[in-house]
Amino acid sequence: MRIERVIGLKKVIPVTLSFALFGVVLAGCSTGNDVKGEQTAAPQVQKKMKLSYLNQNFDKTVKDSYAIKYVENKFNVDIEQLPRSKDNYKDELLLKVASGEIPDVWVDLGFPEYEKLVNQGAVAEIPQEMIEKNAPHYWAWLKKHLGDDPLKLYKRDGKNYSMPIIQTLGPDRTVVGLRKDWLDQVGITKNPETLEEFEDALRKFRNNDPDKNGKKDTYGWTGQAVGVKDIFSPVFGAFGVYPGTFTDKDGKIVRGEIEPGAKQALTLLNKWYKEELLDPEFVLNKGQNVDDKIISSKAGIVTASWYQFITKAAFFDGKYYDKLRVNVPNANWVLTAGPKGPDGQQGTVQLNPIASSGGQFGKHMENDKEKMAKYLQVADATAFDAETFENIVYGEKGKTYKKGEKGDYSYLPPYDKEEEQIKFGIGQQYTFLGKSFNDYDFQTPYMTLNELMSLRKASEHIGKGKYDIMQPIAIPAYNENIDALDQLTLKTYIDIITGQRPASDFDKYVEEWKKAGGSKVMAEAQKKYEENFKK
Protein backbone atom coordinates (compact mmCIF):
# COMPACT_ATOMS: atom_id res chain seq x y z
CA MET A 1 0.00 0.00 0.00
CA ARG A 2 1.49 3.04 -1.19
CA ILE A 3 0.33 5.42 1.54
CA GLU A 4 2.74 6.73 4.07
CA ARG A 5 5.90 8.66 3.29
CA VAL A 6 8.68 9.34 5.66
CA ILE A 7 11.25 11.87 6.70
CA GLY A 8 13.69 12.42 9.54
CA LEU A 9 14.87 15.89 10.53
CA LYS A 10 18.33 16.91 11.68
CA LYS A 11 20.22 20.19 11.81
CA VAL A 12 23.36 20.09 9.71
CA ILE A 13 26.50 19.51 11.79
CA PRO A 14 29.73 21.06 10.47
CA VAL A 15 31.71 18.39 8.68
CA THR A 16 34.74 18.60 10.95
CA LEU A 17 32.61 18.29 14.07
CA SER A 18 30.64 15.45 12.51
CA PHE A 19 33.86 13.53 11.83
CA ALA A 20 35.01 14.18 15.36
CA LEU A 21 31.80 12.87 16.84
CA PHE A 22 31.88 9.85 14.57
CA GLY A 23 35.43 9.16 15.68
CA VAL A 24 34.37 9.16 19.31
CA VAL A 25 31.68 6.60 18.58
CA LEU A 26 34.21 4.34 16.91
CA ALA A 27 36.82 4.82 19.60
CA GLY A 28 35.91 1.42 20.99
CA CYS A 29 35.58 0.31 24.57
CA SER A 30 37.12 1.46 27.81
CA THR A 31 38.92 -0.92 30.15
CA GLY A 32 38.29 -1.92 33.72
CA ASN A 33 39.39 -4.44 36.38
CA ASP A 34 37.59 -7.66 37.21
CA VAL A 35 37.25 -9.04 40.76
CA LYS A 36 40.69 -10.67 40.52
CA GLY A 37 42.29 -7.37 39.68
CA GLU A 38 42.93 -8.33 36.06
CA GLN A 39 42.34 -5.73 33.42
CA THR A 40 39.45 -6.62 31.11
CA ALA A 41 37.50 -4.89 28.39
CA ALA A 42 34.28 -3.33 29.65
CA PRO A 43 31.09 -4.57 27.98
CA GLN A 44 30.44 -2.50 24.87
CA VAL A 45 27.08 -0.77 25.03
CA GLN A 46 25.40 -0.41 21.68
CA LYS A 47 24.59 3.18 20.85
CA LYS A 48 20.86 3.85 20.83
CA MET A 49 19.98 5.95 17.82
CA LYS A 50 17.04 8.22 17.19
CA LEU A 51 15.24 7.71 13.88
CA SER A 52 12.70 10.33 12.81
CA TYR A 53 9.92 10.01 10.25
CA LEU A 54 7.43 12.60 9.09
CA ASN A 55 4.02 11.00 8.73
CA GLN A 56 1.20 12.31 6.55
CA ASN A 57 -1.24 10.25 8.60
CA PHE A 58 0.11 11.55 11.90
CA ASP A 59 -3.43 12.31 13.10
CA LYS A 60 -4.04 8.56 13.22
CA THR A 61 -0.98 7.77 15.32
CA VAL A 62 -0.58 7.74 19.10
CA LYS A 63 2.42 8.30 21.31
CA ASP A 64 4.07 5.12 22.60
CA SER A 65 2.06 3.04 20.16
CA TYR A 66 2.38 -0.73 19.95
CA ALA A 67 3.91 -0.46 16.46
CA ILE A 68 6.55 2.06 17.48
CA LYS A 69 7.48 0.17 20.65
CA TYR A 70 7.91 -3.02 18.65
CA VAL A 71 10.34 -1.40 16.19
CA GLU A 72 12.18 0.39 18.99
CA ASN A 73 12.73 -2.84 20.91
CA LYS A 74 13.64 -4.88 17.86
CA PHE A 75 16.30 -2.46 16.64
CA ASN A 76 17.34 -0.71 19.87
CA VAL A 77 16.33 2.71 18.58
CA ASP A 78 14.14 5.60 19.56
CA ILE A 79 11.45 6.36 16.98
CA GLU A 80 9.95 9.78 16.41
CA GLN A 81 7.00 10.31 14.10
CA LEU A 82 6.19 13.90 13.17
CA PRO A 83 3.26 15.48 11.31
CA ARG A 84 3.66 16.08 7.60
CA SER A 85 1.46 18.09 5.29
CA LYS A 86 -0.39 16.11 2.64
CA ASP A 87 -0.56 19.04 0.23
CA ASN A 88 2.69 21.02 0.65
CA TYR A 89 5.27 18.32 1.34
CA LYS A 90 7.64 19.22 -1.50
CA ASP A 91 7.71 22.92 -0.65
CA GLU A 92 8.13 22.20 3.06
CA LEU A 93 11.08 19.91 2.41
CA LEU A 94 12.83 22.25 -0.02
CA LEU A 95 12.39 25.13 2.43
CA LYS A 96 13.97 23.10 5.23
CA VAL A 97 16.92 22.20 3.05
CA ALA A 98 17.35 25.82 1.91
CA SER A 99 17.37 26.97 5.53
CA GLY A 100 20.03 24.42 6.48
CA GLU A 101 17.68 22.09 8.32
CA ILE A 102 18.53 19.06 6.21
CA PRO A 103 16.56 15.92 7.13
CA ASP A 104 18.18 12.57 7.82
CA VAL A 105 16.00 10.96 5.19
CA TRP A 106 13.16 11.86 2.87
CA VAL A 107 11.16 10.20 0.10
CA ASP A 108 9.05 10.84 -2.97
CA LEU A 109 10.45 14.02 -4.41
CA GLY A 110 10.10 14.30 -8.15
CA PHE A 111 13.17 13.92 -10.33
CA PRO A 112 13.52 17.69 -10.94
CA GLU A 113 13.82 18.26 -7.19
CA TYR A 114 16.15 15.27 -6.93
CA GLU A 115 18.43 16.78 -9.56
CA LYS A 116 18.38 20.12 -7.77
CA LEU A 117 19.29 18.73 -4.35
CA VAL A 118 21.99 16.44 -5.74
CA ASN A 119 23.54 19.37 -7.61
CA GLN A 120 23.36 21.49 -4.46
CA GLY A 121 25.30 18.88 -2.53
CA ALA A 122 22.45 18.29 -0.07
CA VAL A 123 22.19 14.54 -0.71
CA ALA A 124 24.36 11.73 0.60
CA GLU A 125 25.78 9.02 -1.60
CA ILE A 126 24.27 5.61 -0.84
CA PRO A 127 26.77 2.99 -1.99
CA GLN A 128 25.20 -0.04 -3.63
CA GLU A 129 27.06 -2.39 -1.32
CA MET A 130 25.47 -0.67 1.69
CA ILE A 131 22.01 -1.41 0.35
CA GLU A 132 22.91 -4.98 -0.52
CA LYS A 133 24.34 -5.63 2.96
CA ASN A 134 21.76 -3.89 5.13
CA ALA A 135 18.59 -4.34 3.05
CA PRO A 136 18.99 -7.65 1.17
CA HIS A 137 15.26 -8.33 0.75
CA TYR A 138 14.73 -4.84 -0.60
CA TRP A 139 17.64 -5.29 -3.00
CA ALA A 140 16.19 -8.56 -4.32
CA TRP A 141 12.83 -6.83 -4.86
CA LEU A 142 14.49 -4.03 -6.83
CA LYS A 143 16.31 -6.47 -9.08
CA LYS A 144 13.11 -8.44 -9.67
CA HIS A 145 11.32 -5.38 -11.07
CA LEU A 146 14.14 -3.17 -12.42
CA GLY A 147 16.70 -5.71 -13.62
CA ASP A 148 20.29 -6.42 -12.63
CA ASP A 149 21.23 -2.73 -12.42
CA PRO A 150 18.25 -1.25 -10.58
CA LEU A 151 20.10 1.96 -9.66
CA LYS A 152 21.07 3.00 -13.19
CA LEU A 153 18.38 5.68 -13.59
CA TYR A 154 19.21 7.17 -10.20
CA LYS A 155 22.98 7.47 -10.56
CA ARG A 156 24.59 10.82 -11.21
CA ASP A 157 28.24 10.92 -12.29
CA GLY A 158 28.50 7.25 -11.44
CA LYS A 159 27.27 7.63 -7.84
CA ASN A 160 23.98 6.49 -6.41
CA TYR A 161 22.00 8.89 -4.23
CA SER A 162 18.69 7.09 -3.97
CA MET A 163 16.74 4.18 -2.55
CA PRO A 164 14.36 3.51 -5.45
CA ILE A 165 10.66 3.27 -4.71
CA ILE A 166 8.74 1.51 -7.44
CA GLN A 167 4.98 1.40 -7.78
CA THR A 168 4.29 -1.85 -9.60
CA LEU A 169 0.55 -1.06 -9.68
CA GLY A 170 1.18 2.21 -11.51
CA PRO A 171 0.62 1.45 -15.20
CA ASP A 172 -3.06 0.49 -14.77
CA ARG A 173 -3.92 1.83 -11.33
CA THR A 174 -6.24 4.71 -12.27
CA VAL A 175 -9.82 4.06 -13.37
CA VAL A 176 -13.11 5.90 -13.66
CA GLY A 177 -15.80 4.97 -11.17
CA LEU A 178 -19.52 5.49 -11.81
CA ARG A 179 -22.15 5.06 -9.11
CA LYS A 180 -23.96 1.87 -10.10
CA ASP A 181 -26.86 2.53 -7.73
CA TRP A 182 -27.31 5.95 -9.35
CA LEU A 183 -27.34 4.41 -12.82
CA ASP A 184 -30.12 2.12 -11.61
CA GLN A 185 -32.04 5.01 -10.03
CA VAL A 186 -32.07 7.09 -13.21
CA GLY A 187 -32.99 4.16 -15.44
CA ILE A 188 -29.67 3.48 -17.19
CA THR A 189 -29.45 -0.29 -17.63
CA LYS A 190 -26.31 -0.46 -19.81
CA ASN A 191 -23.02 0.57 -18.26
CA PRO A 192 -21.78 3.69 -20.10
CA GLU A 193 -18.92 3.09 -22.51
CA THR A 194 -18.79 5.89 -25.07
CA LEU A 195 -18.54 9.66 -24.60
CA GLU A 196 -22.18 9.94 -25.62
CA GLU A 197 -23.25 7.37 -23.04
CA PHE A 198 -21.18 9.10 -20.38
CA GLU A 199 -22.82 12.40 -21.28
CA ASP A 200 -26.25 10.84 -20.88
CA ALA A 201 -25.29 9.58 -17.43
CA LEU A 202 -23.85 12.96 -16.46
CA ARG A 203 -27.05 14.70 -17.48
CA LYS A 204 -29.27 12.32 -15.55
CA PHE A 205 -27.02 12.41 -12.49
CA ARG A 206 -27.47 16.19 -12.50
CA ASN A 207 -31.17 16.46 -13.37
CA ASN A 208 -32.94 13.25 -12.30
CA ASP A 209 -32.34 13.37 -8.54
CA PRO A 210 -30.26 10.14 -8.33
CA ASP A 211 -30.03 10.32 -4.52
CA LYS A 212 -33.81 10.81 -4.24
CA ASN A 213 -33.63 13.66 -1.74
CA GLY A 214 -35.94 15.93 -3.74
CA LYS A 215 -33.20 18.48 -4.46
CA LYS A 216 -31.13 19.34 -7.50
CA ASP A 217 -27.86 19.16 -5.58
CA THR A 218 -25.86 16.47 -7.40
CA TYR A 219 -23.37 16.72 -10.24
CA GLY A 220 -22.18 14.24 -12.79
CA TRP A 221 -18.39 14.34 -12.50
CA THR A 222 -16.17 15.87 -9.83
CA GLY A 223 -12.42 16.32 -9.85
CA GLN A 224 -9.66 18.81 -9.26
CA ALA A 225 -7.24 21.06 -11.13
CA VAL A 226 -4.21 20.97 -8.85
CA GLY A 227 -2.02 19.78 -11.72
CA VAL A 228 -2.30 19.44 -15.49
CA LYS A 229 -2.75 15.67 -15.20
CA ASP A 230 -5.68 16.08 -12.82
CA ILE A 231 -8.12 17.87 -15.11
CA PHE A 232 -10.64 15.24 -16.24
CA SER A 233 -7.84 13.16 -17.77
CA PRO A 234 -10.11 10.35 -19.08
CA VAL A 235 -11.91 12.82 -21.35
CA PHE A 236 -8.58 13.71 -22.96
CA GLY A 237 -7.74 10.01 -23.12
CA ALA A 238 -10.86 9.49 -25.23
CA PHE A 239 -9.16 11.67 -27.85
CA GLY A 240 -5.83 9.87 -27.50
CA VAL A 241 -3.92 12.54 -25.56
CA TYR A 242 -2.46 12.63 -22.05
CA PRO A 243 -1.79 16.15 -20.75
CA GLY A 244 1.14 16.60 -18.41
CA THR A 245 3.04 13.61 -19.82
CA PHE A 246 5.71 12.76 -22.36
CA THR A 247 4.59 9.83 -24.50
CA ASP A 248 5.98 8.07 -27.56
CA LYS A 249 4.12 8.60 -30.83
CA ASP A 250 5.58 7.09 -33.99
CA GLY A 251 9.11 7.22 -32.59
CA LYS A 252 8.88 10.79 -31.37
CA ILE A 253 8.21 12.35 -28.01
CA VAL A 254 4.98 14.30 -27.73
CA ARG A 255 3.44 16.28 -24.90
CA GLY A 256 -0.28 15.64 -24.42
CA GLU A 257 -1.39 19.14 -23.44
CA ILE A 258 -0.45 20.64 -26.82
CA GLU A 259 -1.69 17.79 -29.03
CA PRO A 260 -4.71 18.53 -31.28
CA GLY A 261 -6.87 16.02 -29.42
CA ALA A 262 -6.67 18.23 -26.33
CA LYS A 263 -8.64 20.92 -28.17
CA GLN A 264 -11.45 18.45 -28.83
CA ALA A 265 -11.50 17.40 -25.17
CA LEU A 266 -11.61 21.00 -23.97
CA THR A 267 -14.46 21.78 -26.33
CA LEU A 268 -16.50 18.90 -24.93
CA LEU A 269 -15.67 19.78 -21.31
CA ASN A 270 -16.80 23.35 -21.93
CA LYS A 271 -20.13 22.01 -23.23
CA TRP A 272 -20.55 19.87 -20.12
CA TYR A 273 -19.56 22.73 -17.82
CA LYS A 274 -22.09 25.12 -19.38
CA GLU A 275 -24.78 22.50 -18.87
CA GLU A 276 -23.76 22.17 -15.19
CA LEU A 277 -22.84 18.50 -15.60
CA LEU A 278 -19.41 19.00 -14.03
CA ASP A 279 -18.78 19.99 -10.43
CA PRO A 280 -18.23 23.77 -10.81
CA GLU A 281 -15.81 23.73 -7.87
CA PHE A 282 -13.32 21.46 -9.64
CA VAL A 283 -11.08 24.53 -10.02
CA LEU A 284 -10.82 24.94 -6.23
CA ASN A 285 -11.00 21.31 -5.15
CA LYS A 286 -8.13 19.46 -3.58
CA GLY A 287 -8.02 15.77 -2.79
CA GLN A 288 -9.97 16.01 0.46
CA ASN A 289 -12.70 18.08 -1.19
CA VAL A 290 -13.15 15.44 -3.87
CA ASP A 291 -13.29 12.70 -1.23
CA ASP A 292 -15.91 14.59 0.78
CA LYS A 293 -18.11 15.12 -2.26
CA ILE A 294 -17.99 11.48 -3.28
CA ILE A 295 -18.58 10.14 0.22
CA SER A 296 -21.46 12.60 0.75
CA SER A 297 -23.04 11.66 -2.62
CA LYS A 298 -22.64 15.02 -4.32
CA ALA A 299 -21.24 13.56 -7.55
CA GLY A 300 -21.57 10.23 -9.31
CA ILE A 301 -18.39 9.95 -11.39
CA VAL A 302 -14.78 10.34 -10.28
CA THR A 303 -11.31 9.31 -11.37
CA ALA A 304 -9.29 7.44 -8.73
CA SER A 305 -7.32 4.30 -7.95
CA TRP A 306 -9.28 1.08 -8.51
CA TYR A 307 -8.87 -0.05 -4.90
CA GLN A 308 -10.76 2.97 -3.59
CA PHE A 309 -13.97 1.64 -5.15
CA ILE A 310 -14.00 -1.79 -3.48
CA THR A 311 -14.02 -2.75 0.17
CA LYS A 312 -10.79 -2.29 2.10
CA ALA A 313 -10.79 -5.99 2.99
CA ALA A 314 -10.21 -6.81 -0.68
CA PHE A 315 -7.01 -4.81 -1.00
CA PHE A 316 -6.45 -1.41 0.56
CA ASP A 317 -8.13 1.92 1.27
CA GLY A 318 -11.71 1.31 0.06
CA LYS A 319 -12.81 4.80 1.08
CA TYR A 320 -15.22 5.33 -1.81
CA TYR A 321 -16.90 2.04 -0.95
CA ASP A 322 -16.74 1.50 2.80
CA LYS A 323 -17.24 5.11 3.90
CA LEU A 324 -19.93 5.74 1.32
CA ARG A 325 -21.90 2.68 2.38
CA VAL A 326 -22.07 3.92 5.97
CA ASN A 327 -24.74 6.37 4.83
CA VAL A 328 -25.84 4.64 1.61
CA PRO A 329 -25.85 0.88 2.33
CA ASN A 330 -26.65 -0.11 -1.24
CA ALA A 331 -24.03 2.16 -2.86
CA ASN A 332 -21.91 0.41 -5.47
CA TRP A 333 -19.60 1.23 -8.35
CA VAL A 334 -18.99 0.35 -11.97
CA LEU A 335 -15.31 0.61 -12.91
CA THR A 336 -14.14 1.48 -16.40
CA ALA A 337 -10.96 2.58 -18.16
CA GLY A 338 -12.82 5.73 -19.19
CA PRO A 339 -15.16 6.78 -21.98
CA LYS A 340 -14.35 5.67 -25.50
CA GLY A 341 -13.83 8.48 -27.99
CA PRO A 342 -14.68 8.76 -31.70
CA ASP A 343 -11.89 6.36 -32.67
CA GLY A 344 -12.46 3.95 -29.80
CA GLN A 345 -9.56 5.32 -27.77
CA GLN A 346 -9.81 5.37 -23.97
CA GLY A 347 -7.65 5.72 -20.93
CA THR A 348 -6.30 8.13 -18.39
CA VAL A 349 -2.89 9.34 -17.29
CA GLN A 350 -1.32 6.45 -15.43
CA LEU A 351 1.64 6.22 -13.07
CA ASN A 352 5.15 5.38 -14.19
CA PRO A 353 6.34 2.49 -11.99
CA ILE A 354 9.32 4.72 -11.26
CA ALA A 355 7.01 7.36 -9.92
CA SER A 356 9.48 9.41 -7.93
CA SER A 357 13.15 9.78 -7.19
CA GLY A 358 12.74 7.33 -4.29
CA GLY A 359 14.31 7.98 -0.91
CA GLN A 360 17.39 10.01 -0.09
CA PHE A 361 19.59 10.74 2.90
CA GLY A 362 20.80 14.20 3.87
CA LYS A 363 24.44 14.96 3.08
CA HIS A 364 25.45 14.81 6.75
CA MET A 365 24.52 11.11 6.80
CA GLU A 366 27.64 10.35 4.73
CA ASN A 367 29.50 10.89 8.00
CA ASP A 368 27.14 8.66 9.99
CA LYS A 369 27.18 5.42 8.04
CA GLU A 370 26.19 3.49 11.16
CA LYS A 371 22.92 5.39 11.37
CA MET A 372 22.37 5.15 7.61
CA ALA A 373 22.77 1.38 7.93
CA LYS A 374 20.22 1.33 10.76
CA TYR A 375 17.66 3.19 8.64
CA LEU A 376 18.21 0.62 5.88
CA GLN A 377 17.85 -2.30 8.28
CA VAL A 378 14.59 -0.96 9.68
CA ALA A 379 13.32 -0.29 6.17
CA ASP A 380 14.12 -3.81 5.04
CA ALA A 381 12.36 -5.41 7.99
CA THR A 382 9.25 -3.22 8.02
CA ALA A 383 8.68 -3.85 4.32
CA PHE A 384 9.74 -7.46 3.83
CA ASP A 385 9.85 -9.32 7.16
CA ALA A 386 6.56 -11.02 8.00
CA GLU A 387 6.88 -10.87 11.78
CA THR A 388 7.77 -7.17 11.78
CA PHE A 389 5.06 -6.29 9.28
CA GLU A 390 2.43 -8.20 11.25
CA ASN A 391 3.31 -6.45 14.50
CA ILE A 392 3.17 -2.99 12.93
CA VAL A 393 -0.06 -3.48 11.02
CA TYR A 394 -1.95 -6.08 13.09
CA GLY A 395 -0.45 -5.92 16.55
CA GLU A 396 -0.59 -8.73 19.08
CA LYS A 397 -1.75 -12.14 17.84
CA GLY A 398 -4.71 -13.45 19.81
CA LYS A 399 -5.49 -10.02 21.20
CA THR A 400 -5.83 -7.65 18.26
CA TYR A 401 -5.87 -10.13 15.35
CA LYS A 402 -6.11 -13.74 14.36
CA LYS A 403 -4.90 -15.85 11.47
CA GLY A 404 -7.61 -18.00 9.93
CA GLU A 405 -7.41 -21.55 8.64
CA LYS A 406 -7.02 -20.29 5.07
CA GLY A 407 -4.22 -17.93 6.05
CA ASP A 408 -6.38 -14.83 6.25
CA TYR A 409 -5.48 -12.11 8.72
CA SER A 410 -8.34 -10.36 10.46
CA TYR A 411 -8.68 -8.01 13.40
CA LEU A 412 -10.46 -9.26 16.50
CA PRO A 413 -13.22 -7.15 18.08
CA PRO A 414 -13.03 -4.38 19.11
CA TYR A 415 -9.92 -3.88 16.97
CA ASP A 416 -11.89 -4.50 13.80
CA LYS A 417 -12.86 -0.83 14.14
CA GLU A 418 -10.32 1.72 12.95
CA GLU A 419 -10.68 3.90 16.03
CA GLU A 420 -9.65 0.98 18.26
CA GLN A 421 -6.67 0.20 16.06
CA ILE A 422 -5.64 3.83 16.36
CA LYS A 423 -5.95 3.75 20.16
CA PHE A 424 -3.86 0.59 20.38
CA GLY A 425 -1.31 2.01 17.98
CA ILE A 426 -1.28 -0.32 15.01
CA GLY A 427 -2.08 0.00 11.32
CA GLN A 428 -0.82 1.08 7.94
CA GLN A 429 -0.38 4.66 9.16
CA TYR A 430 2.90 3.89 10.91
CA THR A 431 5.82 4.75 8.66
CA PHE A 432 9.38 3.46 8.82
CA LEU A 433 10.63 4.29 5.31
CA GLY A 434 10.37 0.69 4.13
CA LYS A 435 6.57 0.84 4.20
CA SER A 436 6.99 2.59 0.85
CA PHE A 437 8.61 -0.51 -0.63
CA ASN A 438 5.49 -2.41 -1.61
CA ASP A 439 5.98 -6.03 -2.59
CA TYR A 440 2.39 -6.95 -3.32
CA ASP A 441 3.17 -10.64 -3.59
CA PHE A 442 4.52 -10.56 -0.04
CA GLN A 443 1.62 -8.41 1.14
CA THR A 444 -1.20 -10.45 -0.45
CA PRO A 445 -2.21 -12.45 2.68
CA TYR A 446 -2.28 -9.25 4.69
CA MET A 447 -4.27 -7.26 2.17
CA THR A 448 -6.88 -9.57 0.69
CA LEU A 449 -9.20 -12.08 2.30
CA ASN A 450 -9.39 -15.34 0.37
CA GLU A 451 -13.12 -14.90 -0.16
CA LEU A 452 -12.47 -11.47 -1.75
CA MET A 453 -9.60 -12.48 -4.01
CA SER A 454 -11.87 -12.76 -7.05
CA LEU A 455 -13.17 -9.21 -6.43
CA ARG A 456 -9.63 -7.91 -6.27
CA LYS A 457 -8.59 -9.72 -9.44
CA ALA A 458 -11.65 -8.43 -11.28
CA SER A 459 -10.82 -4.84 -10.32
CA GLU A 460 -7.07 -4.44 -10.43
CA HIS A 461 -6.31 -4.45 -14.16
CA ILE A 462 -9.18 -2.42 -15.63
CA GLY A 463 -7.20 0.79 -16.03
CA LYS A 464 -5.75 1.81 -19.38
CA GLY A 465 -3.79 4.77 -20.64
CA LYS A 466 -0.21 6.00 -20.77
CA TYR A 467 2.33 7.27 -18.30
CA ASP A 468 5.20 9.72 -18.59
CA ILE A 469 8.04 7.61 -19.96
CA MET A 470 10.56 10.42 -19.45
CA GLN A 471 9.83 10.87 -15.75
CA PRO A 472 13.07 9.29 -14.50
CA ILE A 473 15.25 11.04 -17.12
CA ALA A 474 17.07 14.28 -16.35
CA ILE A 475 15.88 16.98 -18.76
CA PRO A 476 17.38 20.32 -17.60
CA ALA A 477 15.24 22.44 -19.93
CA TYR A 478 12.14 20.75 -18.53
CA ASN A 479 13.19 21.46 -14.96
CA GLU A 480 13.79 25.11 -15.81
CA ASN A 481 10.54 25.73 -17.66
CA ILE A 482 7.88 23.29 -16.49
CA ASP A 483 6.46 25.38 -13.65
CA ALA A 484 5.75 28.32 -15.96
CA LEU A 485 4.48 26.03 -18.71
CA ASP A 486 2.16 24.17 -16.34
CA GLN A 487 0.75 27.41 -14.96
CA LEU A 488 0.08 28.58 -18.51
CA THR A 489 -1.62 25.28 -19.30
CA LEU A 490 -3.72 25.24 -16.13
CA LYS A 491 -4.96 28.78 -16.66
CA THR A 492 -5.75 28.18 -20.34
CA TYR A 493 -7.52 24.88 -19.71
CA ILE A 494 -9.60 26.28 -16.86
CA ASP A 495 -10.48 29.39 -18.86
CA ILE A 496 -11.61 27.32 -21.85
CA ILE A 497 -13.59 24.81 -19.79
CA THR A 498 -15.36 27.55 -17.81
CA GLY A 499 -16.00 29.70 -20.89
CA GLN A 500 -13.63 32.56 -20.08
CA ARG A 501 -11.86 31.88 -23.38
CA PRO A 502 -13.16 30.19 -26.54
CA ALA A 503 -11.81 26.79 -27.52
CA SER A 504 -10.57 28.43 -30.72
CA ASP A 505 -7.85 30.06 -28.59
CA PHE A 506 -6.22 26.67 -28.13
CA ASP A 507 -3.93 27.18 -31.14
CA LYS A 508 -2.77 30.51 -29.71
CA TYR A 509 -2.02 28.77 -26.44
CA VAL A 510 0.10 26.13 -28.20
CA GLU A 511 2.21 28.83 -29.84
CA GLU A 512 2.56 30.68 -26.55
CA TRP A 513 3.55 27.41 -24.84
CA LYS A 514 6.28 26.81 -27.39
CA LYS A 515 7.63 30.36 -27.13
CA ALA A 516 7.62 30.20 -23.32
CA GLY A 517 10.22 27.44 -23.36
CA GLY A 518 8.17 24.56 -24.67
CA SER A 519 10.09 24.22 -27.93
CA LYS A 520 13.36 23.97 -26.04
CA VAL A 521 11.83 21.38 -23.71
CA MET A 522 10.59 19.24 -26.57
CA ALA A 523 13.91 19.37 -28.45
CA GLU A 524 15.85 18.32 -25.37
CA ALA A 525 13.29 15.64 -24.46
CA GLN A 526 13.62 14.14 -27.94
CA LYS A 527 17.40 14.05 -27.59
CA LYS A 528 17.20 12.38 -24.17
CA TYR A 529 14.59 9.94 -25.48
CA GLU A 530 16.88 8.82 -28.29
CA GLU A 531 19.83 8.49 -25.91
CA ASN A 532 17.95 6.40 -23.35
CA PHE A 533 15.33 4.43 -25.28
CA LYS A 534 16.49 4.04 -28.87
CA LYS A 535 19.93 2.52 -28.39
Automatic annotation (TrEMBL):
Keywords: Signal. InterPro entries: Bact_solute-bd_prot1. SUPFAM superfamilies: Periplasmic binding protein-like II. The keyword Signal applies. This is Extracellular solute-binding protein.
